[in-house]
């Protein structure tokens, strides 16, 4: 600590900005001690490309990811005296073959991938975080003609089943934005949907059992939430199962490094989070066979000097909220 386990750059992700080196330099200037570089794995079907990628071939996407790993490891060595950089990837699970391709990729790359951020961005093969209309397309694809509540139950269950399969197969060290499925409905209460809520708890219990960290992802604030991912109900359930939390900014360029970190302390304390963890390289392999292990931040996390640089922003945010009430 301070740390982030999830980031992107415009150099290797077409919907991000800036170079990977600029992201690293910004992280250093923001006094991060551990910072994870985790580009999306390449997609394997042309129909899964995002609009900004349509001019790229699938081979170019693969080559771009290879260049990301080269650059990330080069920067890791170059700035080793100033910051600990961890090199990983963020998963994609669009259709079942994606997991087969990921397994092949991980076998091929070996220790070049130090850890995984396990994320789901699609339901029934359709993006759920691209825009609202595409989200509705995913929602309606599962139970066309059904009542909205039945559609939501099916949508949520499908999302958490995909997440569970990802967790079972790859044991990602960090569970990425656990509840991205309610991006456009942040007030949605999972407990209202009993089958989905059961699967939420199932996934949490499994991830806790093999030793995963659940990221507290500050990107939700820039998406209009008044919370980070995961929302308070999920945080409370993770705590009930004695799960462990790590921080992520999910930055998509240097402009977003540590963005909204000043809002994290109040959220975490109000949710009852008393410990924070981060990943550290280790000689001992973890449940996935990779050489990183979770480490607990010593002392009271909220008293770490890192937070002082954000204190004035937190105070301004509190004052603004009071003025609105």
What's the structural blueprint in terms of helices and strands?
Blueprint: E1 3-4, E2 7-8, H1 20-29, E3 34-40, H2 58-78, E4 84-90, H3 96-109, E5 115-118, E6 122-123, E7 126-127, H4 132-142, H5 148-170, E8 174-175, H6 194-210, E9 213-217, H7 219-222, H8 232-240, E10 244-248, E11 251-252, H9 264-271, E12 277-281, E13 292-296, H10 311-324
Parallel strand pairs: 1-3, 2-11, 3-4, 4-5, 5-8, 8-9, 9-10
Antiparallel strand pairs: 6-7, 12-13
Helix pairs in contact: 4-5, 5-6
Low-confidence stretches: none
Report the helical percentage: 40-55%
The N- and C-terminal alpha carbons lie at a distance of 34 Å
**Element string (H = helix, E = strand):** EEHEHEHEEEHHEHEHHEEHEEH
Shape: globular
Average predicted confidence as pLDDT = 93
% residues in beta strands:
15-25%
- The computed structural class is alpha/beta
Determine Rg (CA atoms, Å).
Answer: 19 Å
Number of strands: 13
The number of helical runs is 10
Record the strand order, biggest sheet: 1-3-4-5-8-9-10
**Main sheet, how many strands, which sense, barrel?**
7 strands, parallel
């Amino acid at each position: 600590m301070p740390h982030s386990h999830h980031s992107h750059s415009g150099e290797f992700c077409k919907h991000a900005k800036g170079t990977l080196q600029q992201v690293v330099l910004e992280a250093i200037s923001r006094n991060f001690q551990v910072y994870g570089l985790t580009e999306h794995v390449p997609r394997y079907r042309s129909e899964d490309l995002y609009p900004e990628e349509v001019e790229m071939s699938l081979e170019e996407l693969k080559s771009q990811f290879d260049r990301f790993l080269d650059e990330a490891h080069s920067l890791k060595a170059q700035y080793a005296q100033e910051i600990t950089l961890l090199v990983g990837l963020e998963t994609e699970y669009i259709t079942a073959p994606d997991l087969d391709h990921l397994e092949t990729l991980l076998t091929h790359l070996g220790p070049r991938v130090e850890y995984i951020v396990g994320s789901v961005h699609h339901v029934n093969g359709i993006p759920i975080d691209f825009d609202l209309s595409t989200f509705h397309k995913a929602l309606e694809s599962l139970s066309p003609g059904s009542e909205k509540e039945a559609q939501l139950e099916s949508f949520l269950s499908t999302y958490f089943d995909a997440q569970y399969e990802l967790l079972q197969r790859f044991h990602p060290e960090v569970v990425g934005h656990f509840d991205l499925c309610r991006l456009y409905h942040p007030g949605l209460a999972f407990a209202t949907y009993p089958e989905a809520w059961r699967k939420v708890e199932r996934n949490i219990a499994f991830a806790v059992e093999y030793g995963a960290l659940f990221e507290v992802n500050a990107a939700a604030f820039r998406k209009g939430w008044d919370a980070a991912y995961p929302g308070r109900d999920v945080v409370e359930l993770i705590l009930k199962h004695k799960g462990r939390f790590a921080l992520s900014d999910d930055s998509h360029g240097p402009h977003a490094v540590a963005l909204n970190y000043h809002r994290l302390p109040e959220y975490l304390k109000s949710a009852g989070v008393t410990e924070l963890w981060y990943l550290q390289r280790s000689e001992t392999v973890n449940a996935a066979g990779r050489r990183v292990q979770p480490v607990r931040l010593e002392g009271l996390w909220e008293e770490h000097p890192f937070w002082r640089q954000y204190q004035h922003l937190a105070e301004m945010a509190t004052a603004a909220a009071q003025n609105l009430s």
